[in-house]
Amino acid sequence: MTADASEPLAQIGVVGMAVMGSNLARNFASKGHTVAIYNRSPEKTRAVINEYGHEGTFIAAETIEDFVASLQRPRKAVIMVQAGAATDAVIEQLADAMEDGDIIIDGGNALFTDTIRREREMAKRNRHFVGAGISGGEEGALRGPSIMPGGPVESWETLGPLLEDIAAKVDGTPCVTHIGPDGAGHFVKMVHNGIEYADMQVIGEAYHLLRYAAGLAPAEIADIFTEWNKGDLDSYLIEITAEVLRQVDARTGKPFIDIIVDAAGQKGTGRWTVKEALDLGVPTTAIGEAVFARALSSALAQREAASEAELPAGELSTLEALGVDKPAFIDDVRRALYASKLVAYAQGFDEINAGSAEHNWDIKPGDLARIWRGGCIIRAKFLDRITEAYENDPNLPSLLLDPYFTGELQKGLVDAWRRVVVVATQLGLPVPVFASSLSYYDSLRAKRLPAALIQGQRDFFGAHTYRRVDMEGTFHTTWSGEREELSY
């Protein structure tokens, strides 16, 4: 229906009636809220009313002006349109039709620097702007996502109860909290997605090892993942991995996994995470390798050329020839998967902490672990442990240093991790996240790294100076002269 003066006003509005936007609107309506909906193409708005209008109270608008007029003050409008220019265009249209104190919420995957810019621009016009990361995909938008809103605290006070209504609930606690000012929400969602990249890749590596090292069929591996999902690896991604591997292609009768082209797509949030980590000087090696693995998978022509060139692989072997017991190897893969996932989460939280310090956001990592326990793609059982870790020590230097996770690593995880990486290398099977995560772990715990030599090299060719272990100050050796050490 279209708004008129006799109708009650909507508590919330949603712009963009593609699947995510329409599902979010339906979620609000299912919780008893009157929801205004608008799409640039009126046909989509009408289609939502025709198909889902019975689920709650909707006010359909065919113009932005009618849409804004149908909202209660302060007006609250969630934008669910394509990121970039389309989002900017809708923001301008809404801002022109709105009044002081009204709230515009961007629920898409926006780059956090764009959110910072938009928030500043809207503040100049006395409009509130909230960048809200929303995770959970289409089903989450409808049934209950994890929501990561940034923006002004005043906006959260008004918007918070509505978002708490539609968010996923774990132990009765809504999976939403105010993250921090301006771009904080979208920054956290960006890193969440980066962790997701690493999580998916390391699960893929585990599957690859079980398939091509242990020689198991997809259905057998599905059973293994189902069993793993009952323990420490209990998570949404492990659950759906079993479902994908169990699927049989209706056309060919082959395992579904075997008829999919092995080229993984990406929409950019993983790359953004790695780029920002580089700028912040935070080593997110697991996320980086996951992004590069997707890029390499998509380089199909290059991979085909390398395959045809028959690049030497060395003397490949089998588990049996290596004297590796298959059941023991399968359990080692489980342990290595758990350890590698832990590194990915630890690195993600490191980046969030660094970003928070850089932008003065005061993000609470424990709050993030809590709201990621339900609704989102990376929801997992061990997020309860991560929540506890940050509750016990909000200034934890690294998640790996929490006593619980240190204890887990001491229970044979590290030895299993090493065995898996060695076997994969001997068999010529790529495990970029397993291997890089183990190397990161070893680097983190090392008393000395080869960086001392690098500093010596830098001082030799560029007079970049160095510090000494036995005294304060900065030094340079005159390498081309008398090799006298100068202090600064």
Offer a few descriptive terms.
two-stranded antiparallel sheet; 488 residues; alpha/beta; seven-stranded mixed sheet; globular
3D architecture notes:
With 488 residues, the chain is α/β, with parallel strands linked by helices. Helices cover 54% and strands 9% of the residues. It has 19 helices and 11 strands. The strands form 3 sheets. Strands 3-2-1-4-5-6-7 form a 7-stranded mixed β-sheet, sandwiched between helices. A two-stranded antiparallel sheet has the order 8-9. A two-stranded antiparallel sheet has the order 10-11. The longest helix has 34 residues, at 326-359. It starts with 11 loop residues before the first strand and ends with a strand. 45% of the residues are buried. The model has no long low-confidence stretch (mean pLDDT 95).
Number of helix segments? 19
Mean of residue pLDDT values:
95
Q: Which blocks of ≥5 consecutive residues have pLDDT under 50?
A: none
Strand order of the largest sheet: 3-2-1-4-5-6-7
Strand-and-helix sequence, N→C?
Answer: EHEHEHEHEHEHEHEEHHHHHHHHHHHHEE
Let me know the largest β-sheet.
7 strands, mixed
- Percent helix range: 40-55%
